[in-house]
Design a protein that fits this description.
Distance between the termini: 33 Å
CATH class of the largest domain: Mainly Alpha
CATH architecture of the largest domain: Up-down Bundle
Number of strands: 4
InterPro entries: Glutathione-S-Trfase_C-like (IPR010987), Glutathione-S-Trfase_C_sf (IPR036282), Glutathione_S-Trfase (IPR040079), Glutathione_S-Trfase_N (IPR004045), GST_alpha (IPR003080), GST_C (IPR004046), GST_superfamily (IPR050213), Thioredoxin-like_sf (IPR036249)
Radius of gyration: 18 Å
Structural class: alpha+beta
Protein name: glutathione transferase
Keywords: Transferase
Number of domains: 2
Shape: globular
Strand content: 5-15%
Family: Belongs to the GST superfamily. Alpha family.
Number of helices: 9
EC number: 2.5.1.18
Order of helices and strands: EHEHEEHHHHHHH
Strand order of the largest sheet: 2-1-3-4
Length: 221
């Protein structure tokens, strides 16, 4: 049996994507088991592997972990991406929670009705520009290091880069007023493990298209 973590989810981004990012940045190879049909989901639920009947689920170190935040915390701690002490961990948690909120906004965009998409996107871009990115711009400037917390790569850095790239897919010039974030993006994108994950053919998932959205809706009936 493979010793690699095994990720159970759809063949798309969703709530599993940040976990893929975290494992890839840590240099950890992982296998994926995709839910292709509604029966796949029902079988997984009936097996007892899903504590709350929900995916994502990650098999790692003999455990079947659910709940995205719990999975991320475990992986970050295991691979030394969770700060050196409780104070650093608290900062990382704050940043990750905020970025998860932004990710949720971005993820839900693809599932909006056609007549709601334009306004939804405008609201999301507004929040990214005026609520979230100014905080990270200031945090990087005030901290004065290459990373958000301490002076080494953490879960917060990885999640921020993911969020930046996702928002740029919606609005390519969104970082125009944020020079610290522009520089941060360049630094993080050139970390060897992350650079590899950003290359074509990696396990990073593309933007969801209409086919993927229909597929997910069908599985959830």
């Amino acid at each position: 049996m493979s010793g690699k973590p095994k990720l159970h989810y759809f063949n798309g981004r969703g709530r599993m994507e940040s976990i893929r990012w975290l494992l890839a940045a840590a240099g950890v190879e992982f296998d994926e088991c995709f839910l292709e049909t509604r029966d796949d989901l029902l079988k997984l639920q009936e097996s007892g592997a899903l504590l709350f009947q929900q995916v994502p689920m990650v098999e790692i170190d003999g455990m079947k972990l659910v709940q995205t935040r719990a999975i991320g915390s475990y992986i970050a701690a295991k691979y030394n991406l969770y700060g050196k002490d409780l104070k650093e961990r608290a900062l990382i948690d704050m940043y990750v929670e905020a970025l998860t909120d932004l990710d949720e906004l971005l993820m839900h965009y693809a599932f909006q009705p056609a007549d709601k998409k334009e306004q939804y996107l405008a609201n999301t871009v507004d929040k990214a520009t005026n609520r979230y990115f100014p905080v990270f711009e200031k945090a990087l400037k005030d901290h004065g290091h290459d990373y958000l917390v301490g002076n080494k790569l953490s879960w917060a850095d990885i999640h921020l880069l993911e969020a930046i790239l996702m928002t740029e897919e919606c609005k390519p010039d969104i970082l125009s007023a944020f020079p610290q974030l522009q520089a941060f993006k360049g630094r993080m994108s050139n970390i060897p493990t992350i650079k590899k994950f950003l290359q074509p053919g990696s396990q990073r998932k593309p933007l969801p298209d209409e086919k993927f959205i229909a597929h997910v809706k069908k599985i959830f009936n």
